[in-house]
Design a protein that fits this description.
Strand order of the largest sheet: 1-9-6-3-4
Shape: elongated
Radius of gyration: 26 Å
Number of helices: 7
Order of helices and strands: HHHHHHHEEEEEEEEE
Structural class: alpha+beta
Largest sheet: 5 strands, mixed
Length: 269
């Protein structure tokens, strides 16, 4: 009878594992759909989250075999969801991480007490891990948006210092890109990054192929690469900050004006 009861307990553990797998598949499908809708590649999500591409791909495919322990999976889901604009903590909390074992018979009278202590320690460990991951993610996000925040604060400070602004006075010492063809360094692929100071329409063409065309909201940070030439066009040049090969961002032009800038890689002779 003892052997029979132990075998009957095993399906409960398997059902929890199956429930975890199904929930991961559901979460992965939602994240994949959101990423596709925003036009983001996995490589761009890697830059935003600092999570290896193989782990992001495993989450989207619901592949538990390629992922670490459940507590770490929950942290990865939270960072992935934050990068796509979700509430990462709330989104990742739906992923089950704690096994719940139900014993139909009790042989030892002190057995519930022995099970209670490890459970509390495990929950405390989860809390510490979540706090650590949250703090690290906040530091990384602040570093990524530091350039945008600095430029915005400088613009506001200049506007407040002048009671009667003159139209001919240029706002801040941010030199816009010229209308001529820019060149990247020898032997390097072309890479541009854009930060949206205000909502603007943008079209990006890399090596003759359109990579993106649409309206991006304020605060968006995107990057594109090309081997030969990148062309960026916008209907609000003053609302778009652009950097070439990770250099200091500059405004594409004057606010409310259409501007098109081409950046080409130099060829070696």
């Amino acid at each position: 009878m003892t052997w029979f009861r132990r075998k009957n307990n095993q399906p409960q553990t398997l059902s929890v594992e199956q429930q975890r797998s199904e929930k991961l598949a559901e979460i992965g499908a939602q994240l994949w759909a959101s990423r596709q809708e925003q036009g983001l590649s996995l490589e761009e999500v890697v830059v935003l989250t600092r999570i290896p591409k193989r782990l992001l791909q495993a989450i989207e495919e619901g592949n538990l075999n390629e992922l670490p322990e459940p507590i770490y999976i929950q942290g990865l889901i939270r960072q992935f969801a934050d990068a796509l604009g979700f509430n990462g903590v709330e989104f990742s909390s739906t992923f089950p991480i704690v096994y719940q074992q139900v014993n139909s018979t009790s042989t030892w009278t002190n057995k519930p007490i022995n099970q209670l202590r490890p459970l509390h320690l495990y929950l405390l460990y989860i809390f510490v891990i979540v706090c650590s991951v949250s703090g690290l993610s906040q530091i990384l996000n602040n570093a990524a948006l530091q350039a945008s925040t600095t430029l915005t604060n400088q613009t506001k400070a200049q506007k407040e210092s002048f009671a009667q602004p003159v139209q001919s006075t240029k706002p801040l010492e941010v030199k816009p890109f010229s209308n001529t063809l820019l060149s990247a360094k020898d032997g390097q692929p072309v890479q541009i990054g854009v930060i949206l100071k205000s909502s603007s329409w943008i079209r990006v063409v890399a090596d003759g192929k359109t990579q993106f065309e649409g309206t991006l909201p304020e605060g968006t940070h995107r990057t594109w690469k090309a081997q030969e030439q990148l062309t960026v066009k916008t209907d609000n040049a003053g609302g778009v900050l652009m950097s070439v090969n990770q250099e200091q961002p500059k405004e594409m032009g004057e606010p409310g004006k259409v501007e098109e800038i081409k950046i080409a890689a130099k060829t070696r002779f």
